[in-house]
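INFO batch 0412 | record 1 of 1 | parsing
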Amino acid sequence: MKRRKFINKTALGTFAAVGFPSIVPANVLGKDAPSNKINIGQIGCGRIAISHDMPDTMKFDQARIMAVCDLDAKRLAKAKVFVDSKYQNITGKSSYMNTKTYDDYREMLLNKDIDAVMISTPDHWHSQPAMEAAIAGKDIYLQKPTSLTIKEGQQLQKAVQDNNVILQVGTQQRAMPQFRIAAELVRNGRIGKVHTVKIGLPGDPAGPEAATMQIPTNLNFDMWLGSTPEVPYTEIGVHPQEDYSRPGWLRQRNYGAGMITGWGQHHYDSAAWGMNTELSGPISVEALAEFPKSGLWNVHGDFLVKHQYENGITVYTSGGYTNGIKYIGDDGWIFVSRGAYQASASDPVDQKKSAQALNASDPNILNSVIDSSEVHLEKIDDQHGNWLDCIKTRKAPISPIDKGHKACSICLISDIAMQFDRKLEWNPNTELFVNDDEANAMLSREQRKPYGTNYVKL
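INFO prediction complete | emitting tokens
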């Protein structure tokens, strides 16, 4: 049987009991023995993996990244060197780790020694590998947005819940104390009844025209495209071949929706924490947006989105507001942002405007003590650390799939609303637009066989 057919048959089906020898040397004993570690496979070795997910996980002694996977052979080789070197520096042993490499994540999922995976791929490659990892019994750390469409998110949520795996969404603002403090103050009425929330989120610029290029021999471009339409290759439409700067796929609608999903899931997740709407959503959405008239990049630029919630809160999102979240109540306001924090060097953070991570109409609001009888939100120190702890305890992580899917859904219906010049009514329970077949047709996308969540056997 040919290798490709073997992988398709096993990885998309019942995952036969095929294992590989542990790659952690057998002479590692004591607290560093392989049996005491959470063995992790990294899927996608680009900008976020190298600068954020892998280093933020490797700092925990209980974790061990033992395998890496990428469709770009250059990035795969660099990721192996990155992981091997990190562990050699940590242990002082030049032969401590010989990281396993894969050019197909489905083959990685057959490795019985791998307990969990981190998925740091482009947005259109989030839901499918996460679903297949869940079916394989692997716990998952998944970068946001959780899905490319509402339907994908529903499919992923079912796969995770049916297989009882731990999935942590990479909405790491929950680990930043200022977001929890702001949400607690709001939830406990320190600014009175909240009526308005303003979320600052930048748009993307238009891009240049891009001529078709020869596909690099180190890139499996067909699989990189995955379920999306077949298009000619151009480097600025995929990712840079020589560095880890901001990739062009972030600005193409085939692969995502731009900043409304890129950073939107972070802010909508945090805002829902403060509004106590994590498992529901808005009941209507309307939007105005500018889109490029030429060039390769075609996601939204300047925009304004309005969401109305059943509890009476109106949420406005626009690049015209300072990046962050402003809760406005009858008795004052609270603003929260990441401050000067950046997950990677090319994050769109205005360092000057965002320097103050927590602010209020009255500084005394921020000094208010939440007593024992009031609402206390879950407190963690690190998003990756919380995921690792939950893998061992089997408790729900701070950003589980159900909350992640709801936050992502707000991003996706916002993008859909940008395509219409009318208000759309939304039912957050059925996850359908009300009496609007045209809008509901955009809750899913056609998927290019053999790739896509529709072809994963649950």
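INFO post-check: The chain is about 30% helix and 15% strand.
INFO record closed
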